[in-house]
Request: fold
Amino acid sequence: MVVRLMVVDDHRLHAEALASALKLRGHRVLAAAAPAAGAADLVVQRAPEVCVLGTAAPAEPGAFDPVVRIKRDRPQVAVLVLGPVPSPRGIAAAFAAGASGYVRHDERIEGVERAIMKARAGEAAVAPALLAGAFADLLNPPAKADDEGHRLLQLLTPREVEVLVRVADGEDTRLIAAGMGIAPSTARTHVQRVLMKLDVGSRLEAAALAARTGLLDRATTVAIPAGPRPGSEPGSA
Reply:
């Protein structure tokens, strides 16, 4: 079934790539544009059946303002949010704004298409696990930022805290390894352990979580070596 679509994303290249993939699958893609000023206006003017709205920061204030505007002026347009693994409250916020679904931005095109078809049919398009997490979060609100930061910090070893600080400073694996005097493979392992313990999928998400919960402020009070320590811990944790 052909769907009249509009793709809107923070990054124009992402929007154009998704639009091209959907066109190849037979859909009519009306436009692909960045959600800067006027993006919601464009959706309202063109009135597609489904708008795929990409966002890199679903937790940011106002992230779903375009959804509110679209649903206010074109309630018949189904809006499907495409973004990173969000906090449960991020999913709740998307639906509260009027979105018909939320799909992870690393979802395969087949999954995105299925979500589009569900949204067009008036169904909620969201993975059961994400939806369950949203309800659990609403029923059991998380601790305050300071408390949450303290709790997360307790999950990390001193070495992992140092890795987190370096990740937040934008250091890649090579710089982390050089700064800590360890092998790149060891640095990579430390980074993966930090991501796993914080339950996030990327370094960017780890840095954002650390800043949002106050973990980063607490972490920077931990003594960090001033520079590389050649010969120390070669290739070991």
In short: Confidence is low (pLDDT under 50) at residues 223-237. The radius of gyration is 21 Å. DSSP finds twelve helices and six strands in the chain.
